[in-house]
């Protein structure tokens, strides 16, 4: 009787081990990612915004640079830097051409209106025209959209009165977009009551929350 019990136990154990072996040898289940996330061609995780704007490039100054600084978009989708003006952006045309985006969003002007010249707006718009012309030449299939310069807080205006010229500068951008037959988006809807909470301590740059609101506003511009 004892011998029979031992045989039954050994048989049961053998069947269990075989089942485990077959289970481990089977296909692996895909690893799930957080809700709304996808993976790119290299298997790297993408946020919804990175996926939506994967074929876009944002050209601009330090305010635009916040998109990648705060990891809202990947660095490859942002071509910006502190102190960038429309004139300096002309130097990036080869890099932009190499990236070959479907959409280019341009947000320059925060530094342009501070440029030490007799008429900063006129000087900046002239360089904007050159930049747009080069993009049309190098990337004829690319959609171009101009974004308005973001306002600053009252305290920032007090520190730098030339920021009072932002509204006039933005009007110039709107007229330029109409003349060049390109896209134009007014960002003023983002700055309603309570929007001061979006600003960083200097009253000019922004916290990460601003950039998600920005990208939500621009979704309809992406083909």
From TrEMBL:
Region ranges (Disordered): 22-45
Transmembrane stretches, start-end: none
Signal peptide coordinates: 1-18
InterPro entries associated with the record: Ester_Hydrolysis_Enzymes (IPR051532), SGNH_hydro (IPR013830), SGNH_hydro_sf (IPR036514)
Keyword Cell cycle: no
Keywords attached to this entry: Hydrolase, Signal
UniProt name for this protein: SGNH/GDSL hydrolase family protein
Provenance organism: Paenibacillus motobuensis
Lineage of source species: Bacteria, Bacillati, Bacillota, Bacilli, Bacillales
């Amino acid at each position: 009787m004892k011998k029979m019990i031992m045989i039954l136990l050994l048989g049961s154990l053998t069947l269990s081990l075989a089942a485990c072996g077959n289970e481990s040898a089977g296909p692996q289940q895909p690893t799930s990612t957080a809700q709304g996330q996808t993976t790119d061609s290299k298997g790297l995780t993408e946020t919804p915004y990175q996926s939506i704007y994967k074929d876009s490039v944002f050209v601009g100054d330090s305010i635009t640079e916040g998109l990648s600084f705060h990891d809202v978009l990947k660095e490859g989708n942002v071509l910006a830097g502190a102190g960038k003006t429309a004139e300096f952006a002309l130097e990036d045309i080869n890099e932009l051409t190499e990236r070959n985006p479907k959409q280019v969003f341009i947000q320059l002007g925060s530094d342009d209106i501070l440029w030490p010249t007799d008429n900063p707006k006129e000087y900046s718009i002239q360089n904007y025209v050159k930049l747009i012309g080069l993009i049309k030449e190098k990337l004829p299939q690319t959609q171009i959209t101009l974004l308005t310069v973001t306002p600053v807080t009252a305290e920032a205006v007090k520190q730098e009165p030339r920021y009072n010229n932002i509204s006039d500068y933005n009007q110039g951008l709107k007229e330029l977009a109409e003349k060049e037959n390109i896209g134009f988006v007014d960002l003023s809807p983002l700055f309603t009551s309570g929007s001061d909470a979006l600003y960083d301590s200097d009253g000019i740059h922004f916290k990460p929350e601003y950039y998600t609101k920005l990208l939500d506003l621009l979704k309809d511009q992406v083909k």
